[in-house]
Amino acid sequence: MASVPNNISPIRLSTRKAGRLGASSVFRPVSVSLGSRRLIVRATETEANKGKSHAPDKAPASGASSFYQLLGIKGAAKETNIWKVRLQLTKPVTWPPLVWGVVCGAAASGNFHWSVEDVAKSIVCMIMSGPCLTGFTQTLNDWYDRDIDAINEPYRPIPSGVISKNQVISQIWFLLLGGLGLAGLLDVWAGHDFPVVFYLALGGSLVSYIYSAPPLKLKQNGWIGNSTMGVSYISLPWWAGQALFGTLTSDIIVLTLLYSIAGMGIAIVNDFKSIEGDAALGLQSIPVAFGMDTAKWICVGAIDITQITVVGYLLGAGKPYHALALLGLIIPQVFFQFQYLLKDPVKYDVRYQASAQPFMVLGLLVTALGMSR
């Protein structure tokens, strides 16, 4: 499933004297004129400057930076090997939520069996959702975020000039077409009369494009952009996994869309470290619009209140044990929010996500098993 970026990680391009890539786009979007006036809410200079000291002009030289480079996360070493750079642009660290979403969808279908065929189908669906379409999304997002990255992380592949414009564009198309091809294959393999997996992949890819690219560029608005990201990271892969092995039902659609609000909260975590670049370029992320302190509470509120609501949903569906298990998985998340996120979301963003998110993804599986028939 194509996801809208990061997530769970960010994006970036060029201010080098000889390396500016210009404003050409991968797909040439039609200009759209909106009649209504847009209300812009900007953070105070003090709030925007809070992230300033966290935007180094060169990659950290730590022992773990080479590993970070392969995962595509903050603190990565600068690499010249083109295949390592290509992998970095796909941000492998963002694949697991999509892969896990497929697992949850398969579990919720109630029709997955530990046979060679079903395991093979699920693996192909995971490759489609993670490396292909999430990789497409992240590369596309890095391309369109090149000016922001030139401010926040100028040492990243596109701003630093280690990969060319043509190489980036060819990677975008290769991953997109590869993902859509796998989606079509899965529909044929599952014997679908209607190619539901293909259309889910196509719809997710379109959402990814309008999330990152002008003229719509949904990420310019924190509420719309992060909500879109939540749907892409949780709902779409779940729907693909469930459609592959069973049938999508209205209650599952409602439940996964509800969970996507928590996904929106997770997306906000990644906006804190980009507050300086976002403010400079007029992107109205939640931290820019509301300031660092208020945004922290919006973030944890979206994550916690959503999951507590799902606990109530499971109780109402006659699944008390699943509801109790989910409640037990929420408690450590709250602990780590106070331990890391609410203390300093810029300094501890990676540590918070590494500590808290495993409990959330386990909660997703508990919910999926509770909803299986």
Notes on the protein architecture:
Keywords: Chlorophyll biosynthesis, Chloroplast, Membrane, Plastid, Transferase, Transit peptide, Transmembrane, Transmembrane helix. It catalyses: phytyl diphosphate + chlorophyllide a + H(+) = chlorophyll a + diphosphate. This is Chlorophyll synthase, chloroplastic. The chain crosses the membrane at residues 172-190, 196-211, 223-240, 252-273, 321-342, 354-372. The protein has 373 residues and is an all-alpha fold. The chain has two domains: 65-247, Tetracycline Repressor, domain 2; 249-372, Four Helix Bundle (Hemerythrin (Met), subunit A) (Up-down Bundle), CATH 1.20.120. Helices cover 65% and strands 0% of the residues. Helix 4 crosses helix 10 (222-245) and helix 11 (250-269) packs antiparallel against helix 16 (349-371). The longest helix is centred in the middle third of the chain and has 29 residues, at 116-144. The chain is globular. The model is unreliable at 6-55 (pLDDT under 50).
Set down the secondary structure blueprint.
Blueprint: H1 45-49, H2 65-71, H3 82-89, H4 95-109, H5 116-144, H6 146-152, H7 157-160, H8 165-190, H9 196-212, H10 222-245, H11 250-269, H12 275-280, H13 286-290, H14 292-316, H15 320-341, H16 349-371
Helix pairs in contact: 4-5, 4-10, 4-16, 5-8, 5-9, 5-10, 8-9, 9-10, 10-11, 11-14, 11-16, 14-15, 15-16
EC number: 2.5.1.62
InterPro entries: Chl_synth, ChlG, Prenyltransferase_related, UbiA_prenyltransferase, UbiA_sf
Organism: Macleaya cordata
